[in-house]
């Protein structure tokens, strides 16, 4: 499908964030603090602990939440300006973390309504596109059932369908695979990777494997600030030379330092994957670093 | 075919109104409550009409008095049924999704007001059409235009007034508190005799339609009569204008105070 977009958003919508601060409760809670980042086309992962500010950042980029200070441009459109924000939103797909639906509408009607609000004014084209995205998320057979009868995973897929409905140039997806079964998760991962070709996609997730498999770049947020942005492989590099395997008898205390993984082994031993600048104990075996290791190492380095 | 991107104010209002209408009109409660209240009006009416109409009353006054009787009770159902609509997006968690579309929140709000109000009034209109048909069979087809005029002038402004407040006030109070307060207001402000307690009943500020009924159609007066007021056509215009202006303000104020602003 081709969609007419504002000239600035005819290709992947680059995102520029400068000194973005978002405060709540009269400034007492600072959810984002002087965040600056740049997103080009393709897939970028967004990682961070709970409460780090990921959802706030995504809400600002979606034009849902106004910044307290700083500037955000999407495809050259300044989100502080109402008209430019609406132009950016016309080319935006957004899947919020807590997705709600109208329970008394069918899946098809819900998407039709959102398509109308997204500016898909031609009824035949909108209906065609709605059927297309419903099939894409494998909801075609249940499209005319009320949303109140959908399972959590099906509602999530409706959310994914509405996010890609308007053929967005910028796709912001917050925990998109939460509630999906493994097969659906893999399908969605493939879908995102396919969409990212000529779009900018920002994917927030707690599942590091989703980022490893799909995102060449990653941004890590912690306590409202960006603590890493760069290639995903470079995040793994943060743990270079610091990953150790420590084996202990089952039931023994865990070794000191951040433990990335615990694997039971035959013979009654347990293998701990530990981040440590130096060997944590005699007999510790060095191991190659993964993105999980890099993320944990980064968080540990920051204290 | 290529969908065009661009969401104007009016298309957004129309889209929101259409879907809000569809969602509200499907509620069984909307039909059960509104038709039940109309049934109550019919049940309590005498052989010559409601509110102790006398034999030989001119037809315009007959229709206006029927409209007044419907207007005294169906706004109560309208207010109670609409009270949960204003905050519905927040409750369902759809707000963020809608705010991320280029469709402005103001246009969506007005669309919601139009669609949800129209849907809630629809059963009342159906009941009124049935009643008008019955009266036309009894009195002749001249009843039909009178029925339309009486509904538009006497019943509709009050329904719009109540709908506007039922959509906007619960944004501040929540639906349960609004329902309690509104029920109290309705009985106090419209149905309580002014010689019993100080009340808006019988003044141009009452949305029940008594001034339009009496001033334009010569219909039955109740609370105005208790005040010794016999409203003329000019006072009816003022009363309807006040009621509709209040409705407009009630809908506009939430949009003004909840405009997008920095946190």
Give your account of this protein's structure.
The complex is a heterodimer of chains A (303) and B (263). Chain A is an alpha/beta fold. Helix content of chain A is 31%, strand content 28%. A six-stranded mixed β-sheet of chain A has the order 6-7-8-3-9-10, sandwiched between helices. Mean pLDDT of chain A is 90; it is low at 1-9. The model of chain B is unreliable at 1-5 (pLDDT under 50). Chain B has 263 residues and is mainly α. In chain B, helix 1 (9-25) crosses helix 6 (105-139) and helix 7 packs parallel to helix 12. Chain B has twelve helices and no strands. In chain B, 48% of the residues are buried. The longest helix of chain B is centred in the middle third of the chain and has 35 residues, at 105-139. The chains are: A alpha/beta (303), B mainly alpha (263). At the A-B interface, strand 1, helix 2, helix 3 and helix 4 of A face helix 1 and helix 5 of B.
Q: Which radius of gyration of chain B do the C-alpha atoms yield?
A: 20 Å
Helix content of chain A: 25-40%
Shape of chain B: globular
Poorly predicted runs of chain A? 1-9
The outline of chain A comes out as globular
């Amino acid at each position: 499908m081709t969609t007419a977009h504002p000239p600035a958003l005819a290709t992947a919508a680059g995102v520029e964030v400068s000194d973005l601060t978002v405060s709540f409760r009269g400034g007492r809670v600072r959810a984002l603090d002087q965040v600056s980042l740049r997103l080009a086309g393709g897939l970028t992962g967004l990682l961070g602990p709970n409460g780090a500010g990921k959802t706030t950042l995504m809400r600002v980029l979606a034009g849902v939440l106004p910044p307290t200070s700083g500037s955000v441009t999407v495809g050259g459109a300044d989100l502080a300006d109402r008209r430019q924000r609406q132009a950016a939103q016309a080319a935006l797909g957004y899947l919020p973390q807590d997705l709600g639906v109208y329970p008394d509408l069918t899946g098809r009607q819900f998407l039709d309504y959102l398509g109308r609000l997204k500016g898909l004014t031609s009824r035949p084209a909108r209906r065609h596109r709605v059927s297309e995205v419903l099939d894409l998320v494998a909801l075609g057979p249940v499209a005319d059932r009320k949303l109140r009868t959908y399972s959590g995973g099906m509602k999530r897929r409706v959310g994914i369908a509405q996010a890609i409905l308007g053929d967005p140039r910028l796709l912001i997806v917050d925990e998109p695979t939460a509630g999906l079964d493994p097969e659906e998760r893999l399908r969605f991962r493939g879908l995102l990777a396919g969409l990212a070709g000529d779009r900018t996609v920002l994917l927030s997730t707690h599942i590091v494997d989703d980022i490893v498999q799909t995102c060449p770049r990653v941004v890590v947020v912690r306590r409202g600030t960006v603590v890493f942005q760069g290639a995903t492989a470079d995040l793994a590099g943060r743990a270079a030379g610091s990953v150790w395997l420590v084996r202990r008898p089952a039931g023994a205390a865990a070794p000191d330092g951040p433990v990335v993984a615990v694997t039971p082994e035959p013979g009654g031993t347990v293998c701990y994957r530990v981040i440590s600048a130096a060997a944590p104990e005699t007999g510790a075996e060095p191991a190659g670093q993964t993105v999980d290791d890099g993320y944990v190492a980064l968080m540990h380095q920051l204290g | 075919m290529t969908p065009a991107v661009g969401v104007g104010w009016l298309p957004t209002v129309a889209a929101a109104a259409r879907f809000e209408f569809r969602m509200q009109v499907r509620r069984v409660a909307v039909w059960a409550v509104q038709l039940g209240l109309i049934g109550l009006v019919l049940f309590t009416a005498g052989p010559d009409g409601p509110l102790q109409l006398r034999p030989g009353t001119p037809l315009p006054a007959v229709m206006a008095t029927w409209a007044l009787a419907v207007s005294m009770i169906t706004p109560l159902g309208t207010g109670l049924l609409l009270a949960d609509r204003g905050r519905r997006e927040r409750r369902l968690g759809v707000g963020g999704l809608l705010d991320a579309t280029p469709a402005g929140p103001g246009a969506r709000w007005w669309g919601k007001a139009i669609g949800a109000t129209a849907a809630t009034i629809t059963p009342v209109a159906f009941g009124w059409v049935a009643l008008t048909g019955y009266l036309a069979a009894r009195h002749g087809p001249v009843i039909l235009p009178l029925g339309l005029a009486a509904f538009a002038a006497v019943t509709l402004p009050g329904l719009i007034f109540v709908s506007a407040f039922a959509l906007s006030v619960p944004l501040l109070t929540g639906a349960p508190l609004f329902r309690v307060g509104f029920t109290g207001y309705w009985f106090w402000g419209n149905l309580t005799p002014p010689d019993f307690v100080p009340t808006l009943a019988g003044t141009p500020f009452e949305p029940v339609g008594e001034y339009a009924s009496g001033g334009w159609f010569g219909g039955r007066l109740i609370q105005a009569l208790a005040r010794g007021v016999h409203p003329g056509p000019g006072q009816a215009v003022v009363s309807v204008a006040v009621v509709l202006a209040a409705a407009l303000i009630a809908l506009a104020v939430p949009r003004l105070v909840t405009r997008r602003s920095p946190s």
